């Protein structure tokens, strides 16, 4: 399961109403569109008293609005319809990467309504990172006129396991404490794989491998239509496949790890550059040093993908991150190496494609973690599962 943090303090009615039965009401409005209270009661099986409390809180939080369906007919009271408010945030996805924080906001209709990103200090502590993410979220909501009062949950992606689950938990704790909602957190590259599998380049591929080549290297595996985590939650650590047994020692304890050859810092070291912008400019201009460094990295990536694919046999391989964004020359070299080091029966029919979502992929995957609608997430924890539930004694039988 992903790391889960639920709201602190004693459960209150207002907090309880956000989960369980309230989600049933929201699901009806997503499915049916504007609906009367009577229609919602019929669809959910909730009693009038229970439904009235839920709707009252949703109205107070701005998650739904209630308007007359039309002019009254006859002597009866006019029928009012409940409608999801597109300007109310229901879920937030956050990626706290090594260099950048990205935030995505979605409404109760599960429509993504806003994105924002900012750079942050790489070595800042968990609380500082959480504070920067919260500041970005609040600024984005204020700028876009989005109400956070009805927020139901937050998904967070952080680097790991090298960044340690302790740090991930600390970030989740700080965000949960500040917003008083459940927080679900996971590895950011795995969430990037989830985002690409639902909305991006791996959509529709029941078996897909995603590799993020950035300031670190990580990946995610979709196997049999499920996002795979592994026994210890460490599946997808492709950055620590050894591509050179005599290579430099990695912080993980291994030697010649892919991350020591093909991540952004490794490319900068090899080229004697301090700026990624300058590196990419030189590469685009055809500089011999940068071209040689990229060729070496592409060969290593292709070999690592060959090893992973010989085990997982994906239908599609998706490459994302700053290094993959070097373009067709890099991707072509990777594909050449990949096919050279795999058996024909393994690479036949495999598509190797660039990521489609860019820096938004992990934040979108974090949103999906909260919504928990995709069958890819079977077996993952839900926000509802760790939130207090309303008393079911008042439900209609």
Please give the largest β-sheet: 6 strands, mixed
Assigned CATH class of the largest domain: Alpha Beta
**Beta-strand content estimate:** 15-25%
Low-confidence stretches: 8-18, 386-397
Summed up, the domain count is 2
| Shape call | elongated
Question: What CATH architecture label of the largest domain applies?
Answer: 2-Layer Sandwich
What's the pLDDT, averaged over the residues? 84
Quick overview of this protein structure:
The protein has helices at 13-16, 21-32, 37-44, 48-61, 126-144, 165-179, 188-199, 259-262, 264-271, 276-284, 288-312, 328-340, 344-347, 361-371, and strands at 3-5, 64-68, 80-84, 89-96, 100-107, 112-119, 153-158, 183-187, 208-213, 217-223, 226-228, 316-320, 351-354. It has two domains: 1-75 and 83-200 and 358-397, 2-Layer Sandwich (Nucleotidyltransferase, domain 5), CATH 3.30.420.40; 204-356, ATPase, nucleotide binding domain (Nucleotidyltransferase, domain 5, 2-Layer Sandwich), CATH 3.30.420.40.
Walkthrough of the structure:
The chain is α/β, with parallel strands linked by helices and 397 residues long. It has a six-stranded mixed sheet with strand order 1-8-7-4-5-6. A five-stranded mixed sheet has the order 11-10-9-12-13, with helices on both faces. Strands 2-3 form a two-stranded antiparallel sheet. The protein folds into two domains: 1-75 and 83-200 and 358-397, Nucleotidyltransferase, domain 5 (2-Layer Sandwich), CATH 3.30.420; 204-356, Nucleotidyltransferase, domain 5. The chain has 14 helices and 13 strands.
């Amino acid at each position: 399961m992903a790391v889960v943090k639920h709201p602190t303090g004693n459960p209150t009615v207002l907090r309880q109403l956000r989960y369980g039965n309230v989600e049933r009401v929201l699901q009806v409005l997503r499915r049916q569109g504007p609906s009367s209270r009577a229609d919602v009661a019929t669809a959910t099986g909730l009693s009038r008293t229970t439904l009235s409390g839920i709707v009252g809180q949703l109205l107070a939080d701005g998650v739904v609005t209630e308007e007359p369906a039309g002019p009254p007919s006859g002597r009866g009271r006019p029928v009012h319809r409940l409608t999801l408010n597109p300007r109310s945030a229901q879920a937030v996805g956050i990626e706290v990467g090594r260099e950048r924080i990205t935030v995505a906001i979605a409404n109760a209709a599960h429509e993504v309504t806003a994105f924002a990103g900012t750079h942050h200090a790489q070595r800042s502590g968990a609380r500082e990172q959480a504070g920067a993410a919260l500041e970005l979220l609040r600024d984005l909501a204020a700028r876009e006129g989005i109400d956070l009062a009805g927020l139901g949950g937050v998904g967070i992606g952080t680097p790991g396991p090298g960044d340690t689950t302790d740090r991930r938990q600390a970030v989740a704790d700080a965000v949960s404490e500040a917003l008083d909602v459940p927080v679900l957190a996971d590895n950011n590259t795995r969430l990037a794989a989830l985002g690409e599998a639902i909305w991006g380049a791996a959509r529709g591929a029941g078996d897909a491998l995603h590799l993020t080549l950035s300031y670190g290297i990580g990946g995610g595996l979709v196997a049999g239509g499920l996002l795979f985590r592994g026994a210890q939650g460490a599946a997808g650590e492709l950055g620590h496949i050894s591509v050179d047994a005599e290579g430099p020692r990695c912080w993980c304890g291994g030697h010649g790890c892919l991350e020591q050859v093909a991540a952004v810092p490794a490319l900068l070291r090899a080229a004697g550059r301090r700026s990624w912008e300058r590196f990419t400019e030189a590469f685009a201009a055809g500089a011999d040093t940068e071209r040689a460094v990229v060729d070496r990295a592409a060969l290593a990536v292709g070999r690592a993908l060959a090893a992973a694919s010989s085990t997982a046999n994906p239908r599609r391989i998706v490459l994302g991150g700053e290094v993959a964004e070097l373009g067709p020359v890099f991707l072509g070299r990777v594909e050449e190496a990949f096919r050279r080091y795999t058996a024909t029966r393994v690479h036949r029919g495999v598509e190797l494609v660039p990521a489609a979502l860019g820096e938004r992929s992990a934040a979108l995957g974090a949103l999906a973690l909260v919504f928990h609608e995709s069958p890819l997430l079977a077996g993952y924890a839900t926000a509802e599962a760790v939130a207090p539930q309303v008393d079911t004694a008042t439900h209609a039988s």
